[in-house]
Amino acid sequence: MNKEPVNRELFDEVMVPNYAPGKIIPVRGEGSRIWDQDGREFVDLQGGIAVTCLGHSHPGLVGALQEQAEKIWHLSNVMTNEPALRLAKTLCDQTFAERVFFANSGGEANEAAFKLARRYAWEHFGPEKNEIISFKNAFHGRTLFTVSVGGQPKYLEGFEPAPGGIHHADYNDLDSVKALISKEKTCAVVVEPIQGEGGVLPGNPEFLEGLRTLCDEHDALLVFDEVQTGVGRTGHLYAYEMYGVVPDILSTAKGLGGGFPVAAMLTTEKVAASLGVGTHGSTYGGNALACAVAQKVIDTVSQPEILKGVKARSEKLRKGMMDIGERYGVFSEVRGAGLLLGCVLTEQWQGKAKDFLNAGLDEGVMVLVAGANVVRLAPSLIIPEQDIDEALERFEAAVKKLTA
């Protein structure tokens, strides 16, 4: 085993330079607290970017992982396994879904969703009906297909030619979708109920309802990317419930494993039929270890008291951040739902979101950004109230220094 010292400098020596991680290296987490190599403690409002939905080292998740690890880790999809079947049944029972496909990441779940949408249209209406409409500033993953459906050109730069047949409308603007949609060519409309990377921007109810109507009128499938909004993040198990708009296909990942890589694509029996034997697959998808952990996550998060608690914590955190914003003139609004919140920077602080992240680290609180103008918060869904208080105190100290 390599016993050389591990530090931030080593990253630059051995890793591809596509990330620019901060100076600290966390080595231990418990609940909503993290400790680095020097023993410094941080309150975690990042949640691994909406992933560690039950905090760090949650006893239930550790137990589920250990129990399954002693039974069986992995089988090929030549066979099925008990944890995958149990989890699929739970997801069908708890959502609109009738069929489930397992993958390892949000990008893979979206890749499966977009392939299914095209395949379904190809089978039912013919090869001409292959166009996908998505939205500017959307984020759907980093594979070539998902990054093309995503609406941020910077992520596609240098990777062209991109897959064709993809159009981008304006988020929350139904007329811009009407201008692009057609019965002959559109196979799907793909949307995040709340744009995450694009600035924590919630969809208007009438916009999402309008998309459902347009899809029905044009024989197109409605795909909800709930990679970031799913698994209790908004105070509902999935955000579509909050809007009362049911998609045909839904992708879920991030929080689904509470930190263990796992993802799923949910759909109806009718639509799922288009992915017949051999049409799509994943070596690790439906892995027994991952599904056992995800089962514990869903069983825990779907409890009414947990979901109710998300809303209470949301109000506390939202009010605290808005108060800081008003005191120091840094935030114009705090938007989002549940524990996916975006603190929008005022005019004079535009472009400086990363400065707030760095200032927070210096004071022992971890926050995120969503673009250059929004400070994003996505903590554990069960973060203790005292940790919220502590985080707000530390963040205020950071803002005070930054604005001095």
From TrEMBL:
InterPro entries: Ac/SucOrn_transaminase_bac, AcOrn/SuccOrn_fam, Aminotrans_3, Aminotrans_3_PPA_site, Class-III_PLP-dep_AT, PyrdxlP-dep_Trfase, PyrdxlP-dep_Trfase_major, PyrdxlP-dep_Trfase_small
Catalytic activity, as annotated: N(2)-acetyl-L-ornithine + 2-oxoglutarate = N-acetyl-L-glutamate 5-semialdehyde + L-glutamate
Superkingdom of the organism of origin: Bacteria
UniProt keyword list: Amino-acid biosynthesis, Aminotransferase, Arginine biosynthesis, Cytoplasm, Pyridoxal phosphate, Transferase
Free-text cofactor note: Binds 1 pyridoxal phosphate per subunit.
Binding site for N(2)-acetyl-L-ornithine: 142, 282
Pfam families cross-referenced by the UniProt entry: Aminotran_3 (PF00202)
Keyword Transferase part of the UniProt annotation: yes
Subcellular location per the Swiss-Prot or TrEMBL entry: Cytoplasm
EC number: 2.6.1.11
Annotated GO biological process: L-arginine biosynthetic process
N6-(pyridoxal phosphate)lysine: modified positions: 254
Pathway assigned in UniProt: Amino-acid biosynthesis; L-arginine biosynthesis; N(2)-acetyl-L-ornithine from L-glutamate: step 4/4
Sites where the protein binds pyridoxal 5'-phosphate: 139, 225-228, 283
GO molecular function, one term: pyridoxal phosphate binding
A GO cellular component entry from the record: cytoplasm
Cofactor(s) the protein requires to work: pyridoxal 5'-phosphate
Complexes and interactors: Homodimer.
Similarity remark: Belongs to the class-III pyridoxal-phosphate-dependent aminotransferase family. ArgD subfamily.
Misc: May also have succinyldiaminopimelate aminotransferase activity, thus carrying out the corresponding step in lysine biosynthesis.
HAMAP family: ArgD_aminotrans_3
Protein name: Acetylornithine aminotransferase
The species this protein was found in: Marinobacter santoriniensis NKSG1
